[in-house]
Amino acid sequence: MDVLGRLLVLVVPVVLVVPVTGAAGGRGAPRDTLTCSQGLACRFVDTDVLCGTELPGPGHGLALARLRLEPALRCTGPAACSPCLVARLRLALPPGTAEPRHPAPSSIPGAEDGGDEGRWSLLDGATSSQPNVSGLLLLSGHTYASSRCVAMEVWAPLASALPGQPLGWVTFRCFEAPLGSELHVTAYTNSRGRRRLSQWQRVPDCSWPAAQDAIPQCQVPRLQVSPGPKEVVVEVQGAAAGHSYTLRLYHNQSHGTGGPGRVVTANSPMNYSLPASEVLPCLCLQVWPETQDPPRATLCPFSHDAEAWERLWARSRLVLHTGGQALTCSLSAPCNLPAELVPCWHPAPTGPCQALPGLQQPAMGQGPQEFKGLRLHPNLCVQVWSGGQVQLSQCLRDQALPGRPDDLLLLEHRENASLCALQQGTCTPLASFTSTGAGHPGLLEQELRQDIATGQCRQIWHPENNTGVVLWVCPLHKYLRARWVLAWMGVLLGAACLLLLLLLKKEDVKGWLKSLKTDYSSEGPLPGRRVLLVHAAEPSAERVACALMSALRPLGLAVVAAPGGGSGVAAWGPLPWLHAQHRRALRDGDTVILLLSPAAVAATHQWGTGAKVVPEAGATESSPGPCHDPGPSDVPTIAPCEVFAAALSCAIPALAAGNGHYVVARLEALVPTVPPALQAAPAFALPSETGGFLRALVGPGRWRGRWPEPYVAVVAEGLLRAVGE
Predict the structure, then answer these.
(1) Of 308, 16, 39, which Cα lies nearest the Cα of 155?
(2) DSSP-derived secondary structure letter, 479
(3) Topology agreement, domain 3-211 and domain 219-307
C-alpha cells in the first residue's frame, strides 16, 4: 500500500474529515488554503487529522528547513473577520537524496513500490517524465483551549535540486485563535530523522491596525452621557450586535489610572442610569469589548460640572490631629482636590482668620499632612482654598491645648528683628500698637520684647534655615489685668448709683406705671383709626372676631366687622355694603384685617383655582363679581355666609397692585399655613404673635412713643378665651 493509502487507513476511522478546496486540490476546510512556490506541487490530505498521529512512510522524502508564522485575517465580509496565523514552511532535500535509477510511471508518487521516488505527478493528472521526490507534512496548532492538525502532500522535482538546498515554500492559511492568545505550531514530515520545527506565536490583539476596523470585537463603542435633574443616563452606542461589553464607572484619583469602581456587563444598545447624587468631577466611564487586552474608550465628562464640584466639597472632610507636637491635618474626599492648605490665626470666632505667611502647602492625596515646625495652639485653624475661595475650615478652638484665646500673635522678621502684631487681618508694628491701651506709647513693646527674651512668650513656628519670619505667642491677659479691675470697679459703681436712683425715685416710678394703666383704660394710643375686619360666617371665626373687636376698641380703633349688621346692610345688602366699606378703607388709608379660619381658607383656595361658590336660589352666577360702587338697583348675588369669598375679589387684586394696608391673621390652632393668594400681605398667627400683629396693624411710627406691650397681654388673653370656647 502506498504512503497516502496507509495514512488514510489510519486517519479515517477516528477523524471527522471536512472537505475543502485547496490551491492544489484535495480535501480541506472551506476557508483553508494551501499554496506552493514555483516548482512545487501540493494538496490537502486532511484538514482535521487526529493530533499525535505518526506519519507512515519510508525514511526518504522532503526535509523541513524553516517555519515562519505570520498574522492574517480570515473574513466573511467587509467588517466580519477573525484573527489567524499563516504557517509558511521552507522545504529542502534531505542529505543523501539521489536521482532514482528506475522511475515508475505512476500518477501518484510511490504508488507501485511504496517508495518516495518516482515521476512527478501534476495536479491535473498528467505525469511528468522528470524524476521527483514527495513527502507527507503534518502541521499542528495548539492553544490553551483547543488544538487542530492538518495533513498535506508535497511533490518536488529532483532535476534542479541539490541535497540540503531549499526547494521552495509551502503556505498554509490559516490557524484561527482568539485575540491575543498564544498558538503553538509544530511541523514535521515522514522523512528520515523526522526533523520537527516548533514555534510559539501570539495572535494579534486589537492593537494590530489591520484588526481595528475588520474585527467586530475590536470596534470600541461610543459613550453618550445625558445629564438630568435626578439621574444621568449613560448610553453605549455603536457596539457590534451579539457581542458583550464591559462598562466601568470609577473615580479617577490620579488623573491617570483609575481606582476601584462599579462594573456593568453591557450589550448594544444599552442605557445605564446613574443617580445624580453620585456624579462627582472625577467620575469617569470606560467601556471595552470582552476580549483579551481589548481597546478601551474612556470618558470623564463631569470635570467642569459646577454642581458636581459642589457635591464633592459637601462630601469632603478636613480633620485636624493633635496627637503630636506639630499641627497635622487630613483632607479626605472621593476625588483628588486641586486645593491649598492654609494655616491661619483665628482668635475670635466671628472675626477673620489671618493666614500665616510661608506655611501654605498644596493638598497631597488622602493621608495626613504635617505643617513642620508649627506647634499647636487653640487659636490655630486650617483653611482649604480652591478656586480663590475657602471651601473647608477647621479650628483647634475646642481642644485642650496650651495657650489662651486672648493670646497675642507676634511676627518677628529675622533680618531687622522688628515685631508686629497680627490682628484683624493686618500686622501692626508694636511701636503703634495701641489697641490694648496698656500705658504710654512704647511701654507695651518694651514689655513684649522683654517677655520674648526671658522665654515667657512661646515660639510656635520658625523656619528650618533660621531666616525669614518667626511667630511668637505672648499672654496678653497679664497686660490687661489692671485695666479689667478698673473696668469692673466702674461697672459696680454705676450699678450702685442706678440702684440708689431707683430708690429715690420710687414714687415717680409708681406714678409712671399708674399713668400707663390710666392711658390704656381711657383714651388709648390710637384714637381716630379705623379697621375693617373681614371673616367667614362660621362659629370659630365669629367668636374670634368678637374678641378682636372688644380688645382693639380700647386702643382707640374703630372696628367694622363683615359680615355684620347695621343700616347699610339693611339698605344695600351684604355685598354692596362690603364693597363700599372696602372702597372707603382704600381711600382713607384704613387697615383691612383678613381673618383666616377653615372656611375662609377653603374660600381662598376656591378663588385661587377659579372654582365657583354655591349660589343662592335665583342667582345666575355664583362666583363673586368685581368691586363696584353700590347703587339703588344693586341686589345681593351671594349668600351672606360667602361674604369672605366676595371680599377676596377686592383684596387680592389690590394686594397684587400694592394698594391698601392689609394684615392677615390666622387662627394657629385651626389654620397651619397662609394660602398662596394672600402671602403678599404680612401674616401673623394668633394668639402667639399678637405683639407683631398689633405693630403691623397700624404701621410703623404711630405709637406716639408708647410701647404696645401693655396691650398685647389683654388682646392675647381675649383671643385665647375665644379660641378655647
Answers:
(1) 39
(2) H
(3) yes
Instruction: Please tell me the predicted confidence (pLDDT) of residue 703.
Output: 54
Count of residues in the chain? 725
**H/E stretch holding 512:** helix 506-521
In angstroms, the Cα distances linking 645 to 185, 667, 676 are 96, 18, 15
CATH number of 219-307: 2.60.40.10
Enter the C-alpha cell of residue 686. 394668633
**Every domain of the chain and the residues it spans:** 3-211, 219-307, 406-504, 525-724
Radius of gyration of the chain (CA): 51
Phi-psi category of 618—alpha, beta or left, where left has phi over 0 and alpha has psi -120 to 50? Answer: left
DSSP string, 626-659: ------TT----S-GGGHHHHHHHHHHHHHHHT-
Nearest Cα neighbor of 650 from 723, 586, 714, 571 is 586
Question: Which grid cell sits at 541?
Answer: 371665626
| CA angle 160–163–166, rounded 5-degree value | 70
**Strand 231-237, strand 270-275: pairing:** antiparallel
**For the sheet containing 326-332, what is the strand order?**
317-321, 326-332, 368-375
Sequence-ordered list of residues with C-beta below 8 angstroms from that of 535, at least 6 positions apart, any chain: 541, 542, 544, 545, 561, 562, 563, 595, 597, 600, 644
CA angle 426, 427, 428 (to 5 degrees): 110
Separation CA 537–CA 79 (nearest Å): 83
Which cell goes with 631?
Answer: 347703587
**673 in Cβ contact with 598 (< 8 Å):** no
Which residue reads 482649604 in cell numbers? 384
Residue 42 has phi, psi (to 5 degrees) of -150, 160
Paired strand residues for 390: 385
Contacts of 266 (CB under 8 A, 6+ apart): 236, 239, 244, 245, 246, 247, 272, 287
Amino acid identity, residue 134?
A: S
Whole-number pLDDT of residue 543: 82
The answer to whether residues 561 and 640 touch, using CB atoms and an 8 Å cutoff, is no
Whether 390 contacts 384, CB under 8 Å = yes
* Contact between 584 and 590 (Cβ < 8 Å): yes
Q: Domain 3-211 - what CATH class?
A: mainly beta
574, 636 in Cβ contact below 8 A? yes
**Per CATH, domain 525-724 is 3.40.50.11530:** yes
Whole-number Å distance between alpha carbons of 654 and 197: 103
How far CA 574 is from CA of 500, 612, 614, 639, in Å, comes to: 63, 19, 16, 8
Terminal C-alpha separation, the chain = 125
pLDDT, mean of each 10-residue run, the chain (725 residues)? 35 29 41 88 88 65 86 84 91 67 36 35 44 82 88 80 77 88 87 76 85 80 88 84 83 63 76 90 88 79 93 94 90 91 88 88 88 91 94 90 88 84 80 56 76 89 77 81 64 83 64 47 62 84 83 78 57 69 83 87 81 38 45 42 75 81 85 85 84 76 56 75 67
DSSP 3-state assignment of 701? coil
Containing 576, the helix (H) or strand (E) segment is helix 574-588
